[in-house]
Amino acid sequence: MTHQNRSQWDAGRFLETLTYFEVIPFLSCLKRLFTNRAKNKTETQGGSQIMGVILVAGATGGVGKRVVRRLIEHDYQVRALVRDAERAREILGEKVELFEADITLPDTLTPQLMNNVVAVVCCTGVRVQPVEGDTPDRAKYYQGIKFYMPEVVDSPEIVDYQGIKNLVQAAARSLPQAASTVLFDFKHPTDQLKETWGAVDDVVMGGVSESSMRLIEQAALFSGNVSTANSGGFASVRTRNFDSPLNLTEYEGIELRVKGDGQRYKFILRSEAKWDGISYCYSFDTEKDQWIDVRVPFEALIPVFRAKTLPDAPAFDSSHVYALQLMLSKFEYDGGLNPNFAPGAFALQVESIKAYGGATKPQFIMISSAGVTRPGRPGINLEEEPPAVRMNNQLGGILTWKLRGEDAVRESGVPYTIIRPCALTEEPGGKGLVFEQGDNIRGKVSREDIAELCLQVLEQPKACNVTFEVKEADSFNSFHNWDSLFSSLKLESGDK
Ligand SMILES: NC(=O)c1ccc[n+]([C@@H]2O[C@H](COP(=O)([O-])OP(=O)(O)OC[C@H]3O[C@@H](n4cnc5c(N)ncnc54)[C@H](OP(=O)(O)O)[C@@H]3O)[C@@H](O)[C@H]2O)c1
């Protein structure tokens, strides 16, 4: 090919591509200065930020505020369901997203409340206060009803049963499939997401193809023009490297929801931070104008370096996923031609990118109470029971309705954990914990430790679909073997 008949190669676009992906660090720094794209904005892109939101209900309460604090400390993205945002801001600080709603008012539990939510921690409870009125700092209140004559402020039936039922049903309508994790949700994009994908076209090798990824209604559109001029023939979009790589070891692969134009595309993963490292590829055919789900099993990925397959390369390391890429290429592998390719305009819509095949983890965690099955149970000696059991009737059947609330959770179809704490205290956490089932234990436990327990449960497949009581151990033990504690639990049977 002579110089004259070569198509006009665009050096500016080439440089732009390398700069966007920070292959030329110095230029990237300058660009960052000029566009004022703060570093910390991308820092969480590969972490929990794109993994979804944890919704905490009852976030202004004694347990709820501690759950929020701990989740934030562990980099979760948290949304707090609160009744009074102004008061909540004072209690919870600036780092949490607030959403005003009331679990007893189903109309307030909107799809916006559940947007991007992957799990709910429900710490709500009907207000119990001293009969002589609440104290401003609620110090007395937090000591528990052992220390004052209590009364309920609202109806336990409406808050602890109907309210919980409303919330878990709203969650059931919109929580994602339990065994998958959404990596990119283009239906509900965040600002960060818009900065993550950039074009890598054959301009990097002298070609003139051109493409982009942009958000359209309910999806992202990867589109452009592939030209085979100048020995080119591919267009692609790639994420910037995640600052902390994704650990997807517990999943089997990636699932894409796409609508294409009938051509064969490639999905590419990278487990190295290098710009020009091994790419692990998977080819998939699209159906013209049809939404389809494409599964990309990690074990089916083909290692490729500069268009050549590498039969001896290590299997894809899903513990360090640095970048994702979508490509339309004239070529398959080792010079073979893509049988479903035509040069010119192309379009592929992407609705979501998920990791699939993971273990099911709890998606609705309810803080209930020890004693819920004891009122009216034959053989119960009320003298020995905690005040809530003794005073269940005076307190509007508080425990009876909590049990009904638990039933609504168990029947919801959402993977759940029901935690039944013994008397809650304001003492420091870090105590040894005792788990029991059957609702027979008495004791106390710090709200700090219940908050930590919620955090553990969120990541614990063994906590799925179990109900258990918890109290602190007699002996001090700051080391928890969480795995063996959860292993001791039986899946739901007749004993509630
Ligand atoms: N106290 C104990 O010894 C003990 C023992 C075992 C179990 N429990 C249970 O453990 C759970 C957590 O206890 P806690 O001490 O953290 O309770 P808490 O301090 O009374 O907190 C209750 C939370 O629920 C919220 N709430 C009440 N009604 C609501 C509604 N209709 N819509 C939305 N939010 C609502 C409250 O919001 P506001 O701030 O707006 O009022 C508050 O944030 C409760 O279910 C409690 O019954 C308590």
From TrEMBL:
<dbReference type="Pfam" id="PF13460">
    <property type="entry name" value="NAD_binding_10"/>
</dbReference>
<feature type="domain" description="NAD(P)-binding">
    <location>
        <begin position="353"/>
        <end position="461"/>
    </location>
</feature>
<dbReference type="InterPro" id="IPR016040">
    <property type="entry name" value="NAD(P)-bd_dom"/>
</dbReference>
<protein>
    <submittedName>
        <fullName>NmrA-like family protein</fullName>
    </submittedName>
</protein>
<feature type="domain" description="NADH:ubiquinone oxidoreductase intermediate-associated protein 30">
    <location>
        <begin position="184"/>
        <end position="350"/>
    </location>
</feature>
<dbReference type="InterPro" id="IPR008979">
    <property type="entry name" value="Galactose-bd-like_sf"/>
</dbReference>
<dbReference type="InterPro" id="IPR013857">
    <property type="entry name" value="NADH-UbQ_OxRdtase-assoc_prot30"/>
</dbReference>
<dbReference type="InterPro" id="IPR036291">
    <property type="entry name" value="NAD(P)-bd_dom_sf"/>
</dbReference>
<feature type="domain" description="NAD(P)-binding">
    <location>
        <begin position="58"/>
        <end position="129"/>
    </location>
</feature>
<dbReference type="Pfam" id="PF08547">
    <property type="entry name" value="CIA30"/>
</dbReference>
